[in-house]
Structures
1.
Amino acid sequence: MGANFKRPNRLTPMMFPAKIDDWVERSHLARFIVDILSKLNFRKFENHYRGSGSEPYHPSILLGILFYGYSTGIFSSRKLAQATYDLVPMRFICGGLHPDHDTLATFRKKFLKEIEDIFNQILLIAHKMEVLRLGTISLDGTKIKANASKNKALSYDYANKLEAQLKGEVKTLMAIAEVADNNEVPPELNIPEEISRREDRLERISKAKAEIETRAKARYEDEKKEYDQKMKAREESEKRTGKKTGGRAPVAPNEAPKAKDQVNLTDEESRIMPCKGGGFDQMYNAQAAVDIDSRLIVVNHVSQCANDKKEIEPALEKLDQLPAELGKVANKLADTGYFSEANAEKCEQKGIAPYIANKRKKHNTFLKEHVAQKERSAEQDPKTNNQQTAVERMIDRMKTPEGKKLYAKRKSTIEPAFGIIKHVMGFRQFMLRGVVAVSGEWNLVCTAFNIKRLHRCSVGILQN
């Protein structure tokens, strides 16, 4: 005898609650987003509307859709628009309204700058909730795929070859047009269209070459500064010792573009960067700094450099723009990718103690480091501390038990933030193109992350 199964009756009438408010439980993320939106100031958004024409959707509705979408892994404007019909939480946020995908896409592109202000407003809300007070932050970067295929990248060498080929084809087509009658030209060959198509491609190639040459010039200027510093150091060493410096002399940089220098034709501001699992792709380097106590992202920016060496300064500039009510950053934690004497000095100039690793730590060195630390503490004269460089002070600071304990929190605070963004929220590729738009979208992602984190903190507070 077979088992008895429960079977669905899809024609059974159901009585839904009379109000959308009754459809969403009190602790739901959608309800928390609506509560956050009610506390925000939208004056900067409202000033862009002229008050003529049809009634626009209020910015709080469109922002609510974006915040819930980015928090739950819905990024496409078409999918966000469809979610206002399909998802009960999204219906609650919209109050039964259904903005179309074009409205959402236009709003996202147009108001990226204004959303930066919303990011700071939410940090102030976190401060009033007694969740956030700045003290120690952990900085790191993660590579995120650009909205462009690496197969659309054009190298400088191939651009020159393709340019010569297309110019030759245009010359040939024009010669055919001059000598041939209409009856002699094959019907499938439309000479004006063929010439126009090649001229369009030549124009795009010319722009791509100009971009590569501009990048090469910028690279040359950076390499020239480094080359001059090295040559100056060699000359000073030879004057001081009276001996010729050994080893190979630094090679002077070349201003000309390299054959493999390339630009992407879809998003020319993206860059080829190494992927974590191996290989290369069109990417941006997304930076974020997390407060180690609240685990909230306090500053963020996007870089076109695969290396993190130059990202300390932009992060410090962003910290200066934070509201004073949040407090002052006392310590900054970062990995070896950020290590340099200049970065340590910049942090100290801002009154921030840097904790930047200068090398990978070996295992099983506790006893050796403990003995060395005791000897150093016994021999060190307090007066010599002022004579040390910023890097020397930082290295000594990180060798103390307190410094080690503090730096150990770096990985466990910033890495989970990137893990949640990529694997829980599902954000692994930018929807927009160009470094300005991408920077705005990354700020939107970080704002959604903070809302998600604040929601979790508020649930925890209610449970306690």
2.
Amino acid sequence: MAQIKSHRDLLVWQKGMNLVTAIYALTKQFPVEERYGLIQQATRASVGVPANLAEGHSRGTRRDYAHYVSIARGSLMELETYVMIAERLGFAERTAAAPVLEQITEIGRMLTALRQRLVER
């Protein structure tokens, strides 16, 4: 296993960055009038996932790191809700939303496992 020297080495951070890209692509389909509504909320929440992982990784204690992992998970669940709302409102087709929701589920499991490891030690 490779040593983690930076937040950029974390697979969950890398997947979080991919999720940001997927959310920006998905929200391009949304109506223009949602620019300052659902689009802004979803993109902000998506960016919060890798950003909080990066900030938490740079903190000095495991407790702080675990706290930021929890914040990242909160942003992820917020994002999941926005994607589901967009689907219900017809802004995103099920075929476009499903892979994003799968990414969210996978990252959620990874964040839960990471936090668990941080608080157990």
3.
Amino acid sequence: MKPMSDELFEELRASVREGGAILRGEHQPERTFTFAPLDVRRIRQNLGLSQRQFSALLGISVNTLQNWEQGRRQPRGAAQILLRIAEQSPQAVLNAARSMTSGTK
């Protein structure tokens, strides 16, 4: 393995120090990312599913889905990603769900 150059090492060290300062609140990040909240009810309705069907598809409780739809909580992690996919390509989600229930790929 080729050793890291001094210049690259110093750049990495500076980046780690800057990250630490941001985490400690000493500096503001140069850029931030925000995501528009999901309209979970609209996504579910576009799929033509009831709350019970949609919660089963996602593997969550109906109560969790209702909390999302009413804005009391926001989906996170894998659920958020799956919902974004369902929003952008509802047929892909329905096809995947059908293939899981029918045992085909």
4.
Amino acid sequence: MSVIGPRLPLMKDETFGHYSLITKFKEEVRQNLKNLLLTSPGERMMIPDFGVGLRRFLFEPRHQNIPAIRQKIDSQVRKYMPFIRNLKVQFDAGTGPDFLDSSNILSITIVYDVPGLNLVNTLTLNKEDVR
């Protein structure tokens, strides 16, 4: 079985060596997308503009910032993960606009595909992931 990369966060696992590793491209793309969303610009050495920085939006008025978050996700994915196509970003799936105005809980669901791998996948980030 081929190994693609380390599973984050690093965890002890003796299956392939010392740490748990990813063996499927679907998992690697999902992990890399999550990393891109949660990394703050300036946090990654040598690539100062890398990252969406979802944490910085935690205490901002949500309704006004949703277009900015959506635009930042789109531009970062186009720049750093250009193999992803048909990106669909939903905020608080299954709720109406009144909920977006009054709630302080943010949930982001991203549906994406990778045509080169014939892959369609979904990534959902809840408040626990963004802390």
